[in-house]
User: Fold these one by one.
Assistant:
Number 1:
Amino acid sequence: MKGKEVTVTLTQRQIWGIAILAALIIIAVVCWRLIPSLNSTERQADPAVVDWTKQQSDSNALYDYPPGREPAGRDYKTSVQQQLFTFDPNTASLNDLVRLGLRPKVAQTIINYRNKGGRFYKKEDFAKIYTLSEQDYKRLLPYIKISENSPRQYPAAAKNFSSRPTSDSSASPYPQKQNKPVLVNTAGPEELMQLRGIGNGYANRIIKYRDILGGYHKIEQLKEVYGMTDSLYEAIKPFIVIEPQHIKTIAINSASEQELYKHPYIRKMAKYVISYRNEIGGFKQVEDFKQVPLINEEIYRKIVPYLSLK
């Protein structure tokens, strides 16, 4: 009897051991299958962020990025057969410039500059093309030959990289670069493009970000515009005029979570704003916004120009 009891006990242990081992193997296999897919699955992005990112991505092709800030893309120097030959930047065609190894957008910028009256009077003037990289400039410098017969109209154009009105300036499709004061909260693309260094891409991005913010309340906010460089910001800063009366505010006692979420300064705190507002029965004064979780003094100073009680 004792021998049978021992045999039954060992069999039960074996059964439990096999069951546990099988369960561990199944769990290991499932984890092995799931972990790679979990790592490769992107975290679901905020809808507003996705929309803003998509707008920027979709419009990248329209933007003139400064040297070193171009989005990753195909290398035109490898996709187009590059050749080095003597050329005059005042007369070289678009195809010639591309064959020299310049990106099509850089080549088109040179053509546009000439169409607006710009001229190159010495080799070093070629470096004034805003989108031309220093590497390309040094590479092409030995091959630049300025013809003595090159037109010499608009001498100030090459110096300032801005065009002067011609007798038929109305026929030009490009806005005249005047560097005059611009009311940034009401300006359209054409007015912004009058500033040196601002093309269609930058103008549209400044306006899009202005609409998301509800208007600019200080010039430094232009640094937050997608792709804005320090050099370009410093160049246009003296000509930017802020109109605080055109800022759109958010009624914090009635705004929905979705409305709060749309503002880039409030997005992460939207749900906390609603919870705190419900808890205290509404904000009695704008300063009460400081008490919302995650709001510190620095964030409050950025947000307060866009807040109102009603």
Number 2:
Amino acid sequence: MSRILGSLEARLSQPRLSIWRTIYFNFRTLPFKQALKLPIYIYGKVRFFMLNGSIIIDSTRISSGMIKIGINGDSFSLFDHSGYLQLADTNSRIVFKGRCRIALNTKIRVVQGVLTFGNNSRIGSDVRIICNGGDIFIGENTGITFSCVVMNSNFHYTYDVNRKGYRNMSSNIFIGNSCWIGNQTTILGSAKLPDYSIVGSGSFVNKDMINYATQSYPMIAGRPAQIKTYGIKRVFSPKTEIKVRSLFQKRQYTEFVPSEEFVDNLDEIAIEL
């Protein structure tokens, strides 16, 4: 009985698919033939504001619901089921390279820029992504957890007194493939993260970490962020996570499970989306 009630409670906390918002958003932003397939599902009370730009789905296969916006993907947010999406002008674009899941309460604003989501990318709840006058690229299989900020502009031009010239208010952000961004991390313009980066919770990233990385699989943390160590990979495969979790739950191991082989099928991420 407890499991049944728990399952019911979980369903009640999930925002419902908004049919009318879904239909409107697809036909407002996509070419007609793509919109007919309803590839983008809108959940809950996601608000639209100035949808003057466009959505591009750059994928060989387009299917219904391959992109979900406003879903309760991580259960780390109050369930007001809201969200916000703005494409301010005709030069504003969001590009989806495949499947994508964007959780509830996430605010996305694109103004004269291109925001790209790689295949199987996941955005947690309460995230704010502001793409203003530049580009933001989020690689495939990359996860950005709850309450993060990704922002490539400070919204104001400044004057450099010493160099005697104006500074641009916007720059590009690049987040590589298979990265994992810890909660409450801030990523600002000019930030670049190499593939397989893990960024610790509460970090502040505002520089090109690719130039600093001397080895693979960097662990990045701090305010400002620095590379702390190398050789740490996030386990993405749900099947691998279940296998490892069972070993710790059985108390066979407490802090470390020795394993010569690392099996992590990234294709299995799609199961969660």
